């Protein structure tokens, strides 16, 4: 009997985190946002560097305001996109608001998906654990 099997005999339930455990990111959050800004540049012909910097600036301001008003740290992607869109309008952009926000969301989700991969070794171990009748919660 393997040593890891001996330890499992006394366990009836295993809890596993999803992100950075079962699903692992290939890229940092910053890298994902930079790639997202590059996607927006391709779609809307706006400098990715400006988009990235404005996104970070708007996000920081909204998070700071939420913290000062409510004492909690909240990131609201939708609200940041709306503020980013207002910034674009001031740049004399002719981009339609709904098209921009929907595309920005879709492109971000795609970048997040592209950055994830399954931890295959862990999946195999979880299958083995499950086959031994141990409850798994993700």
Briefly characterize the structure.
This protein has 138 residues and is mainly α. The chain has helices spanning 3-8, 29-44, 48-70, 77-90, 97-114, 120-131, and strands at 13-15, 23-25, 116-118, 135-137.
Oligomer: single chain
State the low-pLDDT regions, or none.
none
Q: Over the alpha carbons, how many angstroms does the gyration radius reach?
A: 21 Å
H/E topology pattern: HEEHHHHEHE
| Biggest sheet features | 2 strands, parallel
Mean pLDDT: 90
Query: How much of the residues is beta strand, in percent?
Result: 5-15%
Helix content: 55-70%
Query: Based on CA inertia axes, which overall geometry fits?
Result: elongated
Give the CA-CA distance, first to last residue.
Answer: 27 Å
Question: How many DSSP H or I helices?
Answer: 6
Walk across the major sheet and give the strand order.
1-4
Number-wise, the strands total: 4
Counting helices, strands and paired strands, the structural category is mainly alpha
